[in-house]
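Q: For a teaching session next week I want to show students how multiple molecules come together into a single three-dimensional assembly. I've collected the sequence lines for a complex. Could you give me the predicted structure tokens for the whole thing so I can convert them for display?
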Amino acid sequence: MTSIRAFLFVFLTSIACVPALAVNPDEILPDPALEQRARDISANLRCLVCQNQSIDDSDAQLARDLRVLVRERLVAGESNEQIMDYVVGRYGEFVLLRPSFSMKNLVLWGTPVLVLLIGGIAAFSYSRRQATPTGVLSLSAEEEARLNKLLDEQDNSEQ
Amino acid sequence: MIVELGHYALVLGFALALAQMLVPFVGLRNNDARFIAVAPSLSIVVFIAISIAFAALTWAYVVSDFSVKNVWENSFSTKPLLYKFTGVWGNHEGSMLLWVLILALFGALVAIFGNNLPPRLKAGVLATQGTITAAFTAFLLLTSNPFIRLVPAPIEGRDLNPILQDIGLAIHPPLLYLGYVGFSICFSFAITALIEGRIDAAWARWVRPWTLTAWLFLTAGISMGSYWAYYELGWGGWWFWDPVENASFMPWLIGTALLHSALVMEKREAMKVWTILLSILAFSFALLGTFLVRSGVLTSVHSFATDPTRGLFILAILIAFIGGALILFGLRASTLRNGGMFHPISREGALVLNNLFLTTATATVFVGTLYPLFIEALFGEKISVGEPYFNMTFGPLMIPLLIAVPFGPFLAWKRGNLYGAFERLWVAAGLSLLVALVFAYVLYQAPILASFGIALAFWLIFGAIADIWAKAGLPKAKPAVAWARLKGLPRSSWGTALAHAGVGITTLGIVSVTTFEQETVLTMAPGETTQFVGYDMRFDSLEARQGPNFVYDHAVFTISKEGQTIGVVEPENRVYVASRMPTTEAGIMTMVFNQYYVSLGNKIEGTDQIVVRVWWKPMVTLIWWGTVFMTIGGVVSLSDRRLRIGAPKKIKPRRVDVVVGGPAQ
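A: Of course. Below is the structure for the complete assembly, covering every listed component.
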């Protein structure tokens, strides 16, 4: 259906697998600290059947299953890292909304730093080259005299 | 018949666009004044032809002519009239026709208002514009023709995607396209400068108003889209770092950089080569966005492979224009001489810093958006790059940039005085720190990072005020003198201050809503009352209703504080008849800048209960108010005398009625 791909509103449709609510009242843990941890973990996990939605924002059944799974493991006393590792082990790295710091993702994480560094060095050397007066030749005495004459003429004509 | 007329006009438009491309280029090559002179009239005729095509398609939508395949696929006879109009561009074919229409419109605008452009420059710009128009018209005719008929004609259409049946569709895409396509003019100017090997301050003066125009439309378009997503998607997010959003954000970032570098070029003749490169890049990112969205490559490399015709066609256009422009740039850039020297601490230096951070930010968004495709194509693995990545990379890049913004206008050209600038800014700095302290600690007991964000936001706002304050000569100048100075300030100074303050306002909204937002989710039955962030929310009623082309559940909540009713919110859950697709309409109550946001979930089977999700979003509307300030800043700057005189606008003859209307004798 081409209409779904309509420009820029793609995200309106595609990320909303099923519009509306995510976390349902029956899922919420009684312990607010634990619930907050569940939220933090959920925000970093992708709803696998949606386009660009965390499981926290999605109403898809799979997202719900994952939310429940995260909470069960939290209640069982696992740490955030243990839960993340378990989910990645089960669904692969695709489930992470923030890719790992691995060699494979070197370009991804390296780009901002590298562009800033190289650009910064280039801009700095450019401005230094600009600031050093070597490129500028001072006017010869003759040119100086001509310039003054021209400026005087202009002043006179303005008066 | 009218549809066929439109089809014919589109083909005619293509042929004329080819002429618009070829004739002036030949004229430029042979230095033939007659060939050069024909460019403006051709651009205007192309625009007329494509307008006729667009009008014909609109007519088919308005009368619900389902014998046209495009109308059948995307319309419905009982659809409200407004959405019959806006539905024209609510689909692939129609939106590409709108894209081409705006492309031709900008060509015609240069032709009409560019009377005082040097003829060769004007012809070169229009010929380049004609080339782009011809390429996209060919794309429309060959792969996405909106005028194809169906035999026999179906009785009823399949309806427009329900999410698009909103006022947002009327405004968002045209604004966005005006922005995207507006950069094509800068691109055409850059190409002409490279071909002609001539670029000077006058060139920058021509390009700046067009950049500014494209930028302010893009700003408004992105902001509008963000608000639309916010109230339509029903979970209160306003930016998702979705690839499609990023596709529009990248041209905006580069366009913002271009806006600033063109300033340096105009005033100081420095950064010429860089400005040309940015002009090319801004439109290249707009083309890239079109490719990403139109080809379906975003969903997956594989979905692209299943129906590659459109994608490959746009990819070919993309490679031809970007590649061609960059090759031309590589060959000719060295012929452009950079003038104007400056010290690192100067207005120029500040603008270089601006460009450095904005370009890095663009590169970051670019890599983040395309990396999953890259990994999938290279290793066959799937990874996701989502919001947490962008928050970790884009966020830190913005902080130094925003800290630097208020210094810029206080630094002199060539050699500035950083200490002197700070001397005039310390009041602004002190005030913003004070506000942040009061605001964050006393009011909310906020985390330290949020206080920093709030200080940063106010630093931008107070910095912009300090800029105007200092330009008026205050506090030393007498009020009358200061007033006279304020009146005499160039409009571009007001524009700068407004836009920079706008950035601060948006920042304030973002910081506030990400830190202090509260949400709750619960099941409620009509008649129940709940308490949330100090307000009582009573669930009055829930009833099933019938809309024009949808059925919906309509809920009414009354919000009150200490027994006093403050307002009513009415969220809805809709199901559209034709597509069976559900959508949510959030119920929103705005209190100054804060919003109370209510969204309905699923009904609990066998009871009269329903899941209700409520958000308290403090100062959320500032996010969009800030962009309103930025847009107004752009408009004010555009009306500056300098641009009006130098720029594509005819000077009106002095009006005679000034004398007639004078004091009576």
